[in-house]
């Protein structure tokens, strides 16, 4: 069992591919024959998901969709808006997308599909750096 | 590996912070140096998520949002409404939010961010008591 | 720790109960006294969720809801539509529903609630066969 806390560089609002930013910091993964990598974000206004790793327009389209589905123009219906229109909407997006992803490890590598990557979903206009905890269980 | 079934007290429709209701019943967590706590709900009309633990209006705003996004006034488009307008909508909300959360454990404690807590999302008007299974893997 | 890659038979667009299609291929689960089964889909246009296992209209209603919430008539707002109107919408649905489910194992069986089953959510018009990785951690 390996556990490591990682601090991601601040990213602008939107969806970002972070598979290598995380796993370049965990070389021990090569020793795991089979297991699970659990990636957890310690925040409630940014989230993690797995999606398409090749075409950057998928990340743009995700931002377009979620800004429409959880709209800041509805912020008037919310009470928790101390920090602006992107405050409560960020909490909602986080719960829809989730605070962790978990991925099988096979023969020393993440066993992702060809087109899969891990996204950091930064929902705040100014989110700052984000803390991630990676826990690897395996043998 | 520790596993325990917990019965949560019935809660009214809405979002409820349940971190201590669950983990006060699992004192063994203090013995885990590093690991994962997996929390699973055995129902399809209530769900679990991680969100802001301090301001109760976040929980109210979550209820406001999900009632709009998965509206009971759309229940006429659904077939599975035997138990009322909150029947199918509860199933949908459950799949959007998810039936489990998993959280790293570090030095005998849940390694949550400062502002994170576990929510029970009760989607039914009268959900009754809810069964949770907590599984802890660690060393 | 048991790990197995499973290929699901191609399914038509919509929500499908796949608990037995998966676990009939993992008889070793009977040897696990307590643990976790992690089920992961290696695709970004199909997803996994847990929902009602008895009434097939729940699966139809799920498809109805998600087609409305992530509408193909909004495809004009997206850039990633090379493969048709169901391309980007499938990626979005996948992130909302998620690429994995994890379920406690107790006394050799999935410890699901009476009404819970695992769904494959096929978001593409022609998704083809889908690869699943099941990882079981337990003792």
3D structure, described in words:
Chain A is α+β, with helices and mostly antiparallel strands and 139 residues long. Helices cover 22% and strands 37% of the residues of chain A. In chain A, the strands form 2 sheets. Chain A has a 5-stranded antiparallel beta sheet with strand order 1-8-3-5-6, with no helix packed on it. The first copy, chain A, has a 3-stranded antiparallel beta sheet with strand order 2-7-4. In chain A, a hairpin with a 2-residue loop joins strand 5 and strand 6. Chain A is elongated and about 50 Å long. The interface between A and C is medium-sized, with 35 and 29 residues.
Please supply descriptive tags for the structure shown above.
homotrimer; 139 residues; alpha+beta; Jelly Rolls
* Extended strand count of chain A: 8
Shape type of chain A: elongated
Span between termini of chain A: 8 Å
Low-confidence stretches of chain A: none
CATH class bucket of chain A: Mainly Beta
Strand content of chain A: 35-45%
What topology emerges from the helices and strands here?
3 copies of one chain form a homotrimer.
Chain A: E1 2-8, E2 14-17, H1 19-23, E3 34-41, E4 46-52, H2 56-69, H3 86-97, E5 100-106, E6 109-110, E7 116-122, E8 130-138
Antiparallel strand pairs in A: 1-8, 2-7, 3-5, 3-8, 4-7, 5-6
Summarize the structure.
3 copies of one chain form a homotrimer. Chain A has 139 residues and is of the alpha+beta class.
């Amino acid at each position: 069992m390996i556990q490591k806390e990682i601090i991601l560089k601040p990213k602008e609002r939107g969806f970002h591919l972070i598979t290598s930013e995380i796993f370049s910091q965990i070389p021990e993964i090569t020793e795991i024959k089979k297991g699970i990598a659990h990636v957890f974000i310690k925040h409630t206004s940014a989230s993690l998901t797995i999606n398409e790793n090749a075409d950057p327009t998928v990340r743009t389209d995700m931002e377009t969709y979620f800004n429409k589905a959880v709209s800041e123009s509805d912020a008037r219906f919310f009470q928790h808006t101390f920090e602006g229109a992107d405050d409560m909407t960020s909490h909602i997006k986080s719960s829809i997308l989730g605070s962790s992803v978990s991925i099988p490890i096979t023969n020393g590598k993440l066993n992702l599909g060809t087109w899969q990557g891990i996204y950091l979903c930064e929902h705040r206009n100014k989110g700052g750096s984000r803390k991630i905890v990676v826990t690897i269980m395996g043998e």
